[in-house]
Amino acid sequence: MIATLLSLMALGPDVKMGLEYGQADGKPLLMDFYMPDKPVRKPVPVVVMIHGGTWMSGSRGDMTPFAMVLAEKGVAVANVDYRLAPKSKWPAMIVDCQNAVRYLHGSGSELGIDPARIGAAGASAGAHLALLLGFTDGWGPGSGPSTRVQAVANFFGPTDLSKDFDKQLADFVGLQVMGKKASEAPEDVKSFSPVNHVDQKSAPVYTVHGTADQVVPVVQADRLETAMKAAGRPHTKVIVEGMGHGVGAKDEATVAKIKAEVDRAMAWLVARLKA
User: Which residues of the chain have pLDDT under 70?
Assistant: First the structure.
């Protein structure tokens, strides 16, 4: 906690913690907004940062290290919370993320950001939501500018929930998140899976996934690549030997390798939004 506070202090006064971007079910939806000291351009590109947790747990604070990396590279970051299952059912999670994008569109002048240069990044379930921000412009009841972002950094996100996962686990997650067992709701699972939304308008994606991931099989990255190639959309796939489901590892060499790949992914995202 102390280290995090010191890091935030180093960014200066342009860090807004707990900024309300909307309301749902009578409660505020919050983001932490990071404005870099040295923007890559003005107005500043911004990235919607989305935490993981199987759509059932986690909070925006989990992504603070990722947000810090991006802020240090010169882009603004909106590190968001969203409604969680099982209390809230799908599509509440993506609706909230889309509303965060709408908020950024409407607050561009106030925040000093460029609404035409919005990206998304996430880990695990957060990456799933980030991909859907890059591939869709639906679900949310709001009106106004498109909520489709311009580039996505995908860290070990699930891309096709109909394949590769243990049936019992998939049924449990489906029941908690969608209110239906996955095996009994194939059309819902199809809609839930980012690969089924890839088209010629889909945002470019940079994927980082590990060979030792025991939660989201690494073949999920391959499935996304197949879909992106079929649609003629740019996709960079980086498979990290020995990386599990997360950015930690048992040996220092693997940790260093993961850190380097995360940094490259973030640099790619910045370059896409800066161009």
Answer: 1-13, 140-143
